Amino acid sequence: xxxxxxxxxxxxxxxxxxxxxxxxxxxxxxxxxxxxxxxxxxxxxxxxxxxxxxxxxxxxxxxxxxxxxxxxxxxxxxxxxxxxxxxxxxxxxxxxxxxxxxxxxxxxxxxxxxxxxxxxxxxxxxxxxxxxxxxxxxxxxxxxxxxxxxxxxxxxxxxxxxxxxxxxxxxxxxxxxxxxxxxxxxxxxxxxxxxxxxxxxxxxxxxxxxxxxxxxxxxxxxxxxxxxxxxxxxxxxxxxxxxxxxxxxxxxxxxxxxxxxxxxxxxxxxxxxxxxxxxxxxxxxxxxxxxxxxxxxxxxxxxxxxxxxxxxxxxxxxxxxxxxxxxxxxxxxxxxxxxxxxxxxxxxxxxxxxxxxxxxxxxxxxxxxxxxxxxxxxxxxxxxxxxxxxxxxxxxxxxxxxxxxx
Length: 406
Prior knowledge:
Layout: H1 14-18, H2 21-30, E1 34-36, E2 41-44, H3 47-54, E3 59-60, H4 82-89, H5 99-110, H6 113-118, H7 120-136, E4 139-141, H8 142-147, H9 149-159, H10 169-177, H11 186-212, H12 218-224, E5 226-227, E6 230-231, H13 234-264, H14 267-275, H15 280-290, E7 296-301, E8 305-307, E9 310-312, E10 317-321, H16 322-325, H17 360-377, E11 382-383, E12 402-404
Parallel strand pairs: 2-10
Antiparallel strand pairs: 1-2, 3-7, 4-12, 5-6, 7-10, 8-9, 11-12
């Protein structure tokens, strides 16, 4: 097992953030699990291990269904962070059975394949309008003009949030998601707390309005969802709506700009895609594998486990490196190469196991719609300049992507 100082894994180094994949290759070559002192986590870089651990019930997104903070050897979160934790800890992503099972089952009653499929024409039309505006202007920032407004509008439409109320959604989401980075600083926590309070207050009012006058939207569906005597509490509805917005657009926004930047840097692959739009489905999967929007996913060790002879005790935290797993040569042939025709592509960008992304079908619809519109309306689309990468590791994206249409 390598010493922390020579792992080559530095999630705060701009050079690492620009291209973490060579460091991942080194991690995989050195072993299956590594202790990383700066975050007190065990790093797991191999696809087989990550895939297995995502399904291993000895690990959990929370431990509070079995232990107190003290019993688990963890300190109580600072009281000033309570609004963030109340919001975050009642969402199904951060719960384990039986609460996770109950909430996911009830949410699934409202978030049905039919509900998602019904959005397809709206997504297609909106993507077309956004791209048409970009083309008319001769280019612009692909992130702010297409990648971002599309999924935000779609999930807001799905939830039933009026257009006039949608302005704060992206800033709230960005501030809350800042807490998912490694060792977030106090100012990041303060922003997340403020956004949690404001977003929760807004949704509480919207839920009250939908109770009086139900509509054909997801909030109304969450209110109505029940199974025998079980219903979602108001806090569970609020946390679910925030989770669906955050997870429902963060990954899509970053997959879009990461993907197009990868295409611009691989002109032969982009030319093949422009020549054959039937490659869009496999292109989406490959681009999500090639530059993974969510690089790391964490789990608590609820019961002692062993990885390659290393015992990891109860109370430890495991950091599963999705970006590394998606570049594992044991699973992907020539993983450093972008291959839009890749047939065997078991990437784990949408996670796996009971926490597999419930919004994956919607994300794929959105990514296909924007890609189709850009290929059809902007066949000469090209990068105007090299983009600046966000100084984040866990949620990987760009500050913007300036493009030209000639």
